[in-house]
Design goal:
The chain is α+β, with helices and mostly antiparallel strands and about 190 residues long. Helix 5 links the parallel strand 6 and strand 7. Helix 2 packs across helix 7. The longest helix is centred in the first third of the chain and has 21 residues.
Length: about 190
């Protein structure tokens, strides 16, 4: 009887240890970038290993609880952005910044391709001082790759507002929509993400 009890406890302890071993103990962090239409930014970053989630939204403006209609009008001051939740044990903030610079033209003011307006500006919204310093260093390094000056703003994230549901996972949900076919898919192919 004692032997059965000891063996039962031993197997139970082994099961607990196995369960804990398989549980991810790593923490996640967030990065927030604006690089034109948030559908493109979301589609790029959600394909990177170590990125757990990407949420399309609005940031950098003055109006509380902005809507797509308001942001699109250019009157709220917000940029279309993507907030990236990532595992820093798998992908670093610096690696995310590297993809940010590759995924759009940071030398065009308030414009990415046919998307024109302050809501499409190039912006890095840092969550803390460490991200700010990394973004500034990264911008200086990226400038060496461009003939024209980089116009990307680096500013603290004050508020992030999640965009309406129909903007979330837009490329995945609408792969054959014209914008996805003619803008997002070629970008993903150029970046070797599709």
């Amino acid at each position: 009887m004692l032997r059965t009890t000891v063996l039962g406890l031993l197997f139970a302890a082994m099961g607990l240890a196995q369960g804990q071993k398989g549980t991810s103990m790593s923490k996640t962090e967030k990065a927030t970038f604006g690089a034109g239409c948030f559908w493109c930014v979301e589609a790029v970053f959600e394909r990177l290993p170590g990125v757990n989630a990407v949420t399309a939204g609005y940031a950098g403006g003055t109006t509380r609880n902005p809507t797509y209609t308001g942001v699109s009008s250019g009157t709220t001051g917000h940029a279309e952005v993507a907030q990236i939740t990532y595992d820093p044990a798998v992908i670093s903030y610096e690696e995310l910044l590297s993809m940010f610079w590759k995924s759009h033209d940071p030398t065009t003011l308030n414009r990415q391709g046919g998307d024109v307006g302050t809501q499409y500006r190039s912006v890095i919204l840092h969550h803390d001082e460490t991200q700010k310093l990394a973004a500034e260093k990264s911008r200086a390094e990226a400038q060496k790759e461009f003939d024209d000056p980089i116009v990307t703003q680096i500013e603290p994230l004050k508020d992030f507002y999640e965009a309406e549901n129909y903007h979330q996972d837009y490329y995945r949900s609408n792969p054959n929509a014209p914008y996805c076919t003619f803008v997002i898919r070629p970008k993903l192919k150029k970046l070797k993400l599709e």
